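A reminder from the course coordinator: this example appears on the midterm review sheet, so study it carefully.

Given structure:
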């Protein structure tokens, strides 16, 4: 089936819909919340903690009065991708207005280059690059015309100011290329594709009291970490009609780290 024919045949929900990967915690949970706050029906994916994910979905539904769903997806298990997207499309009434590729992995132990194991490299590339690529291929036939894809990259995809981040930086630089190419490929359908490149955001992946946190704070203009809502508000903006002439772009949300 071509993307165009699938767009024509899907039954459509009137409410705006958003699918967010890795929405059980951290930046993804904030993105799910902010899209729901903006009137979107949200489905988000989780990998490991079903109970926590369902609690997040219940909380968002209670706060917004909008149905919110948690769906299992493990980007390292390729066979889970197509069923998860099909499930999301069914839940969201046959269409996805916004897809946010947020789920990601980083080895924060900052290993020396020669110590990066093939397993870590494969996990990083599979989760951060191949996963979003395959998710987007599965979702694209269901993304609305005038819909939007938002890829969560990293400021480390552009500049790498410290050691031990090579596998992660490699994966996030690929997200920039993915965003540019996809903007061309999906643009003729009216679908916009953009990247958000966060800097130091206080989450389990990169806690504001972690080992390298003082250094990270020192690289920002404000001398402080950002919070997940900083990224989430930018995601809602760049997916919205307000950003209708923005595609193939990277929006830094890094407190000036890469300035
Ligand atoms: P967290 O580690 O707090 O959350 C990661 C999320 O990704 C979780 O929901 C996790 O699910 C999910 N996930 C991880 N591996 C997989 C997988 N194999 N399959 C499916 N889901 C998976 O990270 P953040 O919230 O900090 O990061 C979110 C995004 O932002 C990532 O892409 C990250 O690279 C990016 N980023 C973060 C920055 C930061 O400073 N925090 C800076 C720049 C970019 P589960 O809980 O089920 O394991």
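Designed residues:
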């Amino acid at each position: 089936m071509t993307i165009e024919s699938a767009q024509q045949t899907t039954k459509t929900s009137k409410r705006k819909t958003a699918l967010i990967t890795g929405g059980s915690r951290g930046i993804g949970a904030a993105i799910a919340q902010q899209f729901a706050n903006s009137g979107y029906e949200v489905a988000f994916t989780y990998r490991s903690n079903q109970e926590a994910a369902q609690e997040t979905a219940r909380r968002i539904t209670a706060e917004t009065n909008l149905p919110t769903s948690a769906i299992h997806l493990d980007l390292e298990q390729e066979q889970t991708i197509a069923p998860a997207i099909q499930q999301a499309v069914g839940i969201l009434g046959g269409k996805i207005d916004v897809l946010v590729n947020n789920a990601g992995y980083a080895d924060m132990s900052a290993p020396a280059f020669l110590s990066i194991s093939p397993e870590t490299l494969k996990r990083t590339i599979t989760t951060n690059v191949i996963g979003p690529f395959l998710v987007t291929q599965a979702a694209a036939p269901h993304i609305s015309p005038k819909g939007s894809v938002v890829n969560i990259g990293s400021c480390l995809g552009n500049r790498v100011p410290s050691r031990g981040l090579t596998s992660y930086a490699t994966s996030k630089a690929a997200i920039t290329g993915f965003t540019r190419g996809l903007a061309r490929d999906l643009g003729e359908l009216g679908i916009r594709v953009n990247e958000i490149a966060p800097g130091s955001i206080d989450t389990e992946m990169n806690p504001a009291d972690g080992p390298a946190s003082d250094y990270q704070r020192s690289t920002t203009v404000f001398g402080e970490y950002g919070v997940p809502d900083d990224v989430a508000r930018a995601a809602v903006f760049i997916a919205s009609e307000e950003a209708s002439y923005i595609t193939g772009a990277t929006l830094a949300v890094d407190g000036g780290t890469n300035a």
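The chain is about 40% helix and 15% strand. Residues 14-253 form a domain with the Rossmann fold fold (CATH 3.40.50.720).
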